[in-house]
Amino acid sequence: MTTFPWLPVLLVAPLVGATAVMLLPKTSDKLAKQVGLVVSLVVLGLTIAMALNFDAATGDRFQFAVSTPWISQFGVNFALGVDGIALVLVALSTTLVPIVLLAGWHDADDSRGTVRGYVALILTLEAAMIGVFAATDVFLFYVFFEAMLVPVYFLIGRYGGPRRNYAAVKFFLYSLFGGLLMLASLIGLYVVSGDILGTGSFDFTTLASMAIDPGTQKWLFAGFFIAFAIKAPLVPFHTWLPDAAAEATPGTAVLLVGVLDKVGTFGMLRYCLELFPDASRWATPLVIVLAVVGIIYGALLAIGQTDIKRLIAYTSVSHFGFIALGIFVMTTQGQSGSALYMVNHGFSTAALFIIGGFLISRRGSKLIADFGGVQKVAPILAGTFLVAGMSSLALPGLSSFVSEFLVLVGTFERYTWVGVIASLGIVLAALYILLMYQRTMTGPTPDIVAEKVHDLTGREIFAVVPLLVVILVLGFYPKPVLDVINPAVDRVMHAVNATDPAPSVAPVAEGTAK
Amino acid sequence: MNGTLAAAAGSFEIPTLEYSALAPILIVLGAAVVGVLIESFVAQAMRRNAQLVVTFAALVGAFVAVVLARGTQQIVALGSVAIDGPTLFMQGSILVLAAMAALVMAERQVDPAGDSFAPRASALPGSEDEQAFTRLGWLQTEVWPLFLFSVGGMLLFPASTDLLTMFVALEVLSLPLYIMAGLARRRRLLSQEAALKYFMLGAFSSAFFLYGTALLYGFAGTVSLSGIADALTKSADNMGLVLGGLGLLSVGLLFKISAAPFHQWTPDVYQGSPTSVTGFMAACTKVAAFGALLRVMYVAFGGIRWDWRPMMYVIAALTMIVGTIFALTQTDIKRLLAYSSIAQAGFMLVGVIATNQAGLEGTMVYLLAYGVATIGAFAIVTLVRDASGEATHLSQWAGLGKRSPVVASAFALFLLAFAGIPLTSGFTAKFAVFTAGISGGAAPVVVIGVVASAVAAFFYVRVIVVMFFNEPSADSGPSVVVPSAFTTLAITVAVAITVVIGVLPQVIFNLASQAGLFVR
Description:
The complex is a heterodimer of chains A (514) and B (520). Chain A has a domain at 279-498. Chain A is built from 22 helices and 2 strands. Chain A has helices spanning 6-23, 29-52, 84-103, 115-134, 138-147, 149-159, 164-197, 204-208, 214-231, 240-247, 250-275, 277-304, 308-328, 332-363, 374-377, 379-392, 399-414, 416-441, 447-452, 458-476, 479-495, 510-513, and strands spanning 63-71, 76-82. In chain A, strands 1-2 form a two-stranded antiparallel ribbon. In chain A, helix 14 packs antiparallel against helix 16. Chain A is globular and about 70 Å long. With 520 residues, chain B is mostly helical. Helix content of chain B is 73%, strand content 2%. Chain B has a 3-stranded antiparallel sheet with strand order 4-3-5. The longest helix of chain B is centred in the middle third of the chain and has 33 residues, at 188-220. Classes of the chains: A mainly alpha (514), B mainly alpha (520). At the A-B interface, strand 1, helix 5, helix 6 and helix 7 of A face helix 18, helix 19 and helix 21 of B.
């Protein structure tokens, strides 16, 4: 294994980029964007290089690990390291950032904030996203978890749509409230670890190996879980998401829904399950109910939306229900499916938001009713939108299908009826995506649409094509990602002391299950 | 005749004073006396400069004396002053904060009429006299000796080991503040109202303190803190006297830290006082008063903490709730900061309740972090002005982020620190006291604190929204005045310390943990 400090470099590079962008002279908007794009591409390159050095099969759980004491008073270390799940999520983040910068090239041009500020905030956010997935010290995780809010808050509030103030504040307060509950639990966890180990610790591995009294676990679990459920978001903590996503620029919405919200589900998988296994099993029925309600409710609300961005936001509520369901059914397929789903959902939602954003900025309206027949005037735009939508509704051959299928298989293994109800979500997904496509892209083209909506430009195609390629590749060949994820999932399963139910079919099926 | 005098003199023992340990207090009080002499003997034109030199020299000298005295653990001045780790930490904090506040007070570039103090506080507001003084460009310089006397009292307050010394320190720190509150150049009536209100209620609370001292003397036969602690271990009789005395004593101290329900004066006084003085009293008084509260509660009443902790639970919870709820509706930035400081006092009380080493350290770190951000925030308030003086209405701050991004960003940083966002000093401090609170068995109060923090975040964020997300008002609204080096330095230092405590908290925790416990 190499000794190159991958993670610290990944963390620092975007910050250096952000500082450099801020130091540029006032008039150099274009240069700022170019610098931002180059920096984000360098970070992506570094991520790919790091991923190639990752040893999923035989390596340690946390690879590229570094640790230096930060606040020795509280046993806090600046400790970074990635397991398979964290690695793919870091890769998701660093892939989306250059795409977002490229797709939103003009998003900040006429806003109240400066272009430099926009680029710098996105790069700062990238650093925080890398940090939150790579932290192996729970305190450090919390710091990134909260610090992430600040750039997003400014991105929504300064560069967003007409109701940005309301959306930004709502987003900030929901997340902060959850974060503070988590803080209380985090402190509680530290004090408990001090009682058990003699000296308190925030080291994830140490904490995960502790046997905490089940009664205490429930309280600590509650603080962490509510924070993650707000972040993810699960029904009934989801109301901030449609507002925030609808008011944010498409790029911000991509990072918000595509990556930030994954911190919630990632946190459930990594922190809730491993730190509080007893409490997680105790809470399973409740979480599964919330997840299933979210799948159906999110889908129904999506069908009823008149605003494209809010519709996409509600589809995500439904999809986050699937992810949470897969995590808490406590089967290997379910959790692998969820981890993969986090990645796939990131890409397909990104594609939807970005192409939807192109559509909206051309017509100057977010309302579905204002569109129609776009397919005739902008075939590439319509075609890419259809592919993204198909991925979102989990069409076989596109990436989301694999993960949704795994989640459902994992669910059926343990709770047949839950699986049946959750499957309804797929039907509803077909409804909301196809209805939206039909209303915006097909039918007669109103004059105003024909006049305003033109097809994708070269830059826009450049931003969208990588997303579609990833969606296709992961749809046909998800194995590389699953290989990286699976060892990490096995560890989670082991930590929560869960075993897959014995297959109810004949053992012959075993060989073909994988 | 001579013989009796000699005999009397013979029975009088000359007290041995440990001058080096007392040096910080003596330097500051001595400089204050020099300041009074300057007022009498130095020509009007040179007074300001002379006062500034004396003031800053005294603050720096006293700080050096504190640094030199590090590691001291002794009771000096015939058992009435304890120079120990916590005392030195708090004296150091007070001196740093006072120096920052003095920088803001020394500013004379932002107000076209001079500095921020009335030329003659005795002149009737709006009178011919006042206008004449202003026209002549007279500057108020008495504020500097007053300031130094107040700082001297603050240095003594957390170091006092008996209740009488503590009372004297309380008065020495309070009386100059009452006057300073009334010195604002603009909005004279509001300022005088603030001074009177502060004086009346302050005098009232001092009486409570004294009455409590009397009851405790009745119980223990001594006013020394360790004496009271010893008496408590010996006998459990007359607990009525103890609890009554403790209750009344606490009223006096809780008034100074503006804990609910003794907080009513805070918004009015903070709003009416000259803003630079507000920063000074919000930061330094709180450090001194918390220092005294900690010493009383830990040293004298540590043994009966099970009796007073329930009371403090209620006070802490109430303070956090009242501070945050009332702050939600404020539209004046100074009143908003006042209610915020009430809420912050509630968070700090969580550290007091913990009654353990971690609680002491956490509270000390919190005090420093809060004080620095407070002085920085009030310093920025002095800069946002329109023709009639400071523009403190929240609506006047709309769009500040667009017109003065640097100043608005600094203010946003202080607000985020108050809100306790990670990587700012406020988070470090909050984490420290909450950790101490949970390990000290006060988990319910911590949960209330966490919820209150979430509510508090709302009004901090609201100010950021106004500054950054709202359009500036169309007419020529207030503008940010470019200050002289004094205020710039104060704000820069405040920003730096806020970030350093947030990012590299180890430095400050090392200092706080070296401070150790109170010497008895």
